[in-house]
Specification:
Helices cover about 45% and strands about 15% of the residues. It is α+β, with helices and mostly antiparallel strands and about 650 residues long. The strands form 4 sheets. The protein has a 6-stranded antiparallel beta sheet with strand order 2-3-1-9-8-10. A 6-stranded antiparallel beta sheet has the order 4-5-6-7-11-12. β2 and β3 form a beta hairpin. α8 crosses α23 and α12 packs parallel to α21. The protein is globular. The chain starts with a strand and ends in a 20-residue tail after the last helix. This is asparagine synthase (glutamine-hydrolyzing).
Length: about 650
């Protein structure tokens, strides 16, 4: 794992000043403190920061083919590199290292852009083909490894993190209000839009082909998709009805996925929450590697959210060492949030991300570089509670054309004194994702905060753009899927790629130089789950049904029967007494007017009165989420755009975000 960055002259062969690419590399130091490498050509400079995990002695980047006319900088891991190396050598390629990166230029020689369909793992790649005078940038299927790019006049810049682009001195930090609206729509940034004007995220499963103008006339920048999540037509899913047959097959693909992600020249640990997902990963890892795998967990000082007892019980049952524990409380949320926003480069509403930032720091302090985790199981096997709610609501629409569920939703919001969108809003949203979808209601809870808190200028953005329309779903295919699979697509495209793998995954882990690996995101695991009949995912109201059947072979009943616990820290940490001074400053009338995103009077009103609403009620939860989003947005603006909205306490300071 590492960080990559680069600058290309699109119209000529002007040399990139070395101090620019050095600054970009330095801004990514946390992603790769072990080694630094540069690739310099007329009109092009690329940098790599390496976290040494595979090929410790000979994995230095950039890497090349035999003739050195194909050169690569690479962030990530290719988990089938052992097999690929053997195949390439059998076909006459000469490989001289023990590192996975080296297979990339050779696969490019054979398949060019078709290479991406052959890669298996988590990756962001920058490849220069000297013969074609072409730069190609690409990302993995699910968006595990980040990659951003921007065109600034006649220059194209790319990097693993936005702070590297800003460090170049060539990219101004200007807010893009569309990105902020996406955060308030999805509690995530699925891309390509970011919160920075002119900076795009390369979407998962896409590559960018860049042809500079000095060899091909006018410069050409073309983005292409090489893969998409797909599912069988409704009624054409895997017809297998024998549970043992399916569990055996699922067990086989999961063991293979975990085994490949244990490949490393350094020890591999595992996050452990005590839920069925991470517990299964640990059980399979210990089966393959032995019982000495270190585990790490967070303890939240709220009995309803604390999972330490479950995690400890799982480790004892499997025979793994007791979990290393990171404590997390209200004060930690307040002091860690500035560091979280600095790491994530966007407003983050999910308070649990701050605890995972601290957990990754604990992993680093323990000398560990790699951990496994269970993200992906909830997405592929519908582990979120709103799928069950959608199933119940679906019963209301048994009579075609009446849409009783819409009337019931609107009546409930009206009764709860919660603002709501026009009746046409839901129909338009459903049309953008191929039909009814369980995630619309889930995201809608935060989306209601727009109606309360947005300023007039943000309402203009809200009314003129539609975040759902930017997701790029293949509607012709989606209309043929079972509704449950349409939800899986949205979960993978938005919550997984835009949140769990970024603000809760790569960004907080790599902030402490820790690589996270995701067995449930193995390509074969997705393909297997995608073809399953929906009943194996949600059987009645039992979520992750097939995974729980598999877990019966490996885990105690209290774990495989355990319901979904959404890991989060309390949302009201920012508004407890005594009020943190920097929060008061961020939400002052002056600061709110200077950013211009939110209506200052409304924010002040709800800060004073939300506590009088019934705890856990829909109105209070909606306001708490909205206020958390306002705080996160103001803090992002302070750290990346303005810098004068508040005085951060010493323990919350992040230091310079950009080195220039």
């Amino acid at each position: 794992m590492c960080g990559i960055a680069g600058v290309m002259d699109l119209v000529g062969r002007r040399s990139v000043p070395h101090e620019i690419i050095e600054r970009m590399s330095l801004a990514l130091y946390h992603r790769g403190p072990d080694e630094e490498g540069f690739f310099i050509r007329p009109g092009l400079a690329m940098a790599s920061r390496r976290l040494s995990i595979v090929g410790l002695a000979d994995g230095q980047q950039p890497m090349h083919n035999e003739d050195k006319n194909v050169s690569v900088v690479f962030n990530g891991e290719l988990f089938d590199y052992v097999e690929k190396r053997v195949e390439l050598a059998a076909r006459g390629h000469t490989l001289v290292t023990h590192c996975d990166t080296e297979i990339i230029p050779h696969l490019w020689e054979e398949s060019a852009e078709g290479m991406f369909e052959r890669l298996r793992g988590q990756f962001a790649i920058a490849l220069w083909d000297e013969r074609q005078q072409k730069l190609t940038l690409g990302r993995d299927r699910f968006g595990i490894s980040p990659l951003y790019w921007t065109r600034q006049g006649d220059w194209l810049l790319f990097a693993s993190e936005i702070k590297s682009l800003l460090a170049s001195g060539m990219v101004p930090a200007i807010p893009d209000r569309r990105g902020i609206d996406h955060v308030f729509t999805f509690s995530a940034l699925p891309g390509p839009i970011t919160c920075f004007e002119g900076i795009q995220m390369l979407p998962p499963a896409h590559f960018l082909e860049v042809l500079p103008g000095h060899s091909h006339g006018s410069p050409s920048i073309r983005e292409r998709r090489y893969w998409d999540m797909d599912f069988p037509d409704a009624g054409q899913e895997n017809p297998e009805t024998n549970a043992k047959t399916l569990v055996d097959e699922f067990e086989h693909v999961m063991l293979d996925a975990v085994g490949k992600r244990l490949r490393a020249d350094v020890p591999v640990g595992s996050y452990l929450s005590g839920g069925v997902d991470s517990s299964m990963i640990l059980a399979l890892a210990c089966h393959l590697r032995g019982k000495s795998i270190s585990t790490y967990t967070v303890r939240v000082n709220d009995p309803k959210l604390d999972e330490l007892d479950a995690a400890s019980m799982v480790a004892k049952f499997i025979g793994a060492p007791p979990p290393v524990v990171q404590e997390f409380n209200h004060e930690d949320a307040i002091s860690t949030y500035p560091k979280l926003i600095a790491a994530a480069e966007a407003p983050v509403i999910d308070t649990s991300c701050a605890s995972l930032l601290q957990l990754a720091q604990k992993v680093h302090e323990c000398g560990q570089k790699v951990v496994l985790t269970g993200e992906g199981a909830d997405e592929w096997l519908v582990g979120y509670p709103w799928y069950k709610a959608a199933k119940i609501i679906g019963f209301l629409d048994a009579i075609p054309g009446l849409r009783i569920s819409d009337k019931a939703r609107r009546a409930f919001l009206r009764f709860s004194d919660v603002p709501q969108y026009p009746a046409s809003f839901r129909a338009r949203t459903e049309a953008n994702v191929g039909g009814p979808n369980a995630w619309i209601d889930s995201y809608g809870l935060l989306g209601l905060a727009k109606l309360r808190f947005y300023s007039d200028s943000m309402h203009t953005v809200r009314e003129s753009t539609d975040p759902w329309a930017t997701l790029g779903m293949n509607l012709d295919r989606a209309k043929k899927w079972h509704p449950l699979n349409r939800g899986i697509w949205v979960a993978g495209r938005v919550t997984l790629a835009g949140h769990l793998l970024q603000a809760k995954g790569d960004r907080v882990a790599m902030h402490s130089s820790v690589e996270v690996r995701y067995p449930f995101l193995d390509e074969a695991v997705f393909d297997f789950c995608a073809k399953l009949h929906p009943d194996w995912k949600l059987r009645g109201f039992r979520d992750k049904h097939l995974l729980r059947l598999l877990a019966e072979r490996w885990l105690p009943p209290s774990i495989y029967k355990r319901g979904k616990v959404i890991f989060r820290a309390p949302l009201d940490s920012f508004h407890l007494e005594p009020e943190p001074p920097y929060i008061r400053q961020l939400l002052s009338e002056d600061s709110l007017k200077r950013t211009g995103y939110f209506d200052a009077a409304t924010v002040q009103h709800w800060r004073k009165t939300y506590g009088s609403l019934r705890a856990t009620s829909l109105p209070r939860l909606s306001i708490e989420m909205g206020l958390a989003a306002v705080v996160a947005t103001q803090l992002w603006h302070h750290q990346y755009i303005d810098g004068s909205l508040c005085d951060l306490p010493s323990q919350a300071r992040t230091g310079p975000l950009v080195t220039i």
